[in-house]
Amino acid sequence: MPIVPYSGGSSLEANFSAPYGGLTIDFAHMNRILELHEADMDVVVQPSIQWMELNEKIKDSGLFFPVDPGPSAMIGGMVGTNCSGTNAVRYGTMKDWVINLTVVLADGRVMKTRQRPRKTSAGYNLTGLFVGSEGTLGIVTEATLKLAPIPEETRVGVVAFPTIRDAASTAMQLIRKGIPVQCMEILDDVQMDVINKAGGTGRTWKKLPTLFFKFSGTKAGVADSINLTKNLSKSNNAESFEFARSEREAHDLWSARKQSLWSMMALRKEGSEVWSTDVAVPISRLPDIIEISKTELDDLGLFASILGHIGDGNFHASIMYDPRNAEEKARVEKVVYDMVDRALDMEGSCTGEHGVGLGKKSSLKKELGPETIGAMRSVKKAFDPHWLLNPGKIFEFKD
Amino acid sequence: MPIVPYSGGSSLEANFSAPYGGLTIDFAHMNRILELHEADMDVVVQPSIQWMELNEKIKDSGLFFPVDPGPSAMIGGMVGTNCSGTNAVRYGTMKDWVINLTVVLADGRVMKTRQRPRKTSAGYNLTGLFVGSEGTLGIVTEATLKLAPIPEETRVGVVAFPTIRDAASTAMQLIRKGIPVQCMEILDDVQMDVINKAGGTGRTWKKLPTLFFKFSGTKAGVADSINLTKNLSKSNNAESFEFARSEREAHDLWSARKQSLWSMMALRKEGSEVWSTDVAVPISRLPDIIEISKTELDDLGLFASILGHIGDGNFHASIMYDPRNAEEKARVEKVVYDMVDRALDMEGSCTGEHGVGLGKKSSLKKELGPETIGAMRSVKKAFDPHWLLNPGKIFEFKD
Question: ipTM greater than 0.95, yes or no?
């Protein structure tokens, strides 16, 4: 496939060149859209483009890239961790949206994992292997991504519950019944307070465990899903069910959720840090693990909260602590790793979307055992025998 | 995770044991359901269970396994080829529905790729690597599969078009607009005749290029999708739009589509064979490749047809020929490989769901080039250095 410069609609092209001021700088930053294939619903990009920037640039096509992790994330990093985000309930995770990758291997060979079909059974799924390999198998220089049509209608709803277990149970039952939602996020009382303090949504929300929903699709489909969700929430003791009253309010509300980590960071005292972590469990275990973890976080006496992508059995804990205080740090560490161990005991995973990196190498060993880590290590050895690429991440050279 | 015997509802258990007559035989055939986790929406199975049998046995749970290749396919083979089927438009392919695999490696080590979370970023995606590896990397002895809720409502619709291009264009536009369909199959005039000859649907269908649709979801959502599909079909010159009048008729109609290969086989003359092949292309190229390939198939003067999963950019050609007639076989071969080359020229794939096996090794080389095949070969070498597992499939030991 020849790499031709992106030549979409003129407004797109103007948008695209403007912020960088010229081709040379664009290329140096590796943040360009190289080809937009509207009729095929895919786009070829360089790895340093941010997903939000990508979506802004292609919006006139009526298409979007639906994987939505933290607002500043770039495609390359998103490939690295097999990230996801609030849209994963409906659209899946990064591995489901990458058609092919161009990769520079450790020995300098350049390889493209696939051509451009959305579906294939031709040989090993190298695309799916590089996605989530945290930069340890090769350097991604180009990615072809699937795009989805922007839904006709999107509504955002907010439902408060008396307990975190009621919220988690509602989420679990919705998934089990197959009621179509685009997003389903859980936020605890602390997170709702963070949103209130950060302002920007134009309302003061109840300081209660809350589910944020995004419903999307055709008008009739959305109305139907909302109705079913309301009924199910009521039967789980929902305190209130509110909708964004306008597109602007819906956008502000969702932004508040997406910015929650940054909002928490903004509330940091001097010298303190936010420990952000995630685990994933089989969905029936969600109410249990969330309830126990919430209690342990509250008992820390720190500014700590639970939020996340409950529709996938995946959630986050964020804890503000002072790393200079050894006793405090040790207590936080214990709560985090106890939560991870609890997820593993429930046949879950030490990370649903953040990756292993350095911090969860010992958890990965517990999760998978020596045979499976050994198989992963043999893949690493096949692609990078001299351990040149991101060494020490995911697992050690030798244990 | 301890492997506990399946202990679902009593009717399920009775169904499950009955055909085999006892535990020992069940285990020997490796066709058991080991665990059904209804609340987690997953199931642990042995590889020799057929997907239709699995769905029959778990139907009282309100859940089903949505990957639906040919009626006799077993889970192990479906893992091997990363298969799909008519449901792939909505539900994706095999790789999207496998949570973990237990695999015996070439050196005798037994490994489980994952625990049981539906979402994870913990280490390399070995599950996704083994799915589609055609038995060349390890022997799958157990699989945990995601399940989906059985939709509230399902309707089957049949739309005839004057030309195959009109049918293909309609399919492409529906996908592009994001109109929700569960299935969208294209059948050419020859295939419709096969269905008429096989009987069993209780009607005689027009011998015209036809789209078969399955709509599913909530009642309101289905009604909406049907309406949008009707309008779009009309604007593409649809000749007729008919619905199955009952659940029984819907089932018979869909079975007719699913059985189409067997129906064609049943029409074979003594000594003749059916060559069944598939390709996949970026979706905008579908009308072109289908039109050209259809003309070339017609020109063979044999019993040959096009059908397939047009919503994924993937379709099949089936050709009845006499392998004892060298001239005829050569002409068929030329049409097949010309179609494959055409798909590759369109940045497509030599196979969307059948796999490479022996027959498409040379096409895979054209599709991916030596660097990518080299990377696949290094994976093979890492897992099976002595080339013991399914040797000669996908690619050669040395080229």
Answer: no
